């Protein structure tokens, strides 16, 4: 997140990175967000999953909501003449393309000193692993990430040894 601060449109880029991680977005899902998907009064976000996934509503975290508000202030400065209500716009007042989003993530990763080339799907995986590591139930994680098939979710919990903690509450006889 800090690496995005020194890039152009830091509010937008930090917002993109945080939302991709917090909600486990695929690139297309994030870039398809509209202003109308944000419920400011309820501090919620309507999420339309792709790949036949479950669409749902997620709460907006306080820090995330504040970043969105900062981006929306910046967005107002460039939105003149924009058709549609895309949440994330490029400098050219168009919706951000997948290629542009990939370059934003790659550059943020480079500036952060990552040893690998960062890409947007890493943030989705990081979300899944972080939630699994925090003990989120596999079925809840499946719903949160919008997976129809639980097998796509199990990968996040399979490497978490903490899930076995307490299995043997009593000593075997």
UniProtKB/TrEMBL annotation:
<dbReference type="GO" id="GO:0003677">
    <property type="term" value="F:DNA binding"/>
</dbReference>
<dbReference type="InterPro" id="IPR013762">
    <property type="entry name" value="Integrase-like_cat_sf"/>
</dbReference>
<dbReference type="InterPro" id="IPR050090">
    <property type="entry name" value="Tyrosine_recombinase_XerCD"/>
</dbReference>
<keyword id="KW-0805">Transcription regulation</keyword>
<dbReference type="GO" id="GO:0015074">
    <property type="term" value="P:DNA integration"/>
</dbReference>
<dbReference type="InterPro" id="IPR011010">
    <property type="entry name" value="DNA_brk_join_enz"/>
</dbReference>
<keyword id="KW-0233">DNA recombination</keyword>
<protein>
    <submittedName>
        <fullName>DNA recombinase</fullName>
    </submittedName>
</protein>
<dbReference type="GO" id="GO:0006310">
    <property type="term" value="P:DNA recombination"/>
</dbReference>
<feature type="domain" description="Tyr recombinase">
    <location>
        <begin position="1"/>
        <end position="169"/>
    </location>
</feature>
<comment type="similarity">
    <text>Belongs to the 'phage' integrase family.</text>
</comment>
<keyword id="KW-0804">Transcription</keyword>
<dbReference type="InterPro" id="IPR002104">
    <property type="entry name" value="Integrase_catalytic"/>
</dbReference>
<keyword id="KW-0229">DNA integration</keyword>
<keyword id="KW-1029">Fimbrium biogenesis</keyword>
<dbReference type="Pfam" id="PF00589">
    <property type="entry name" value="Phage_integrase"/>
</dbReference>
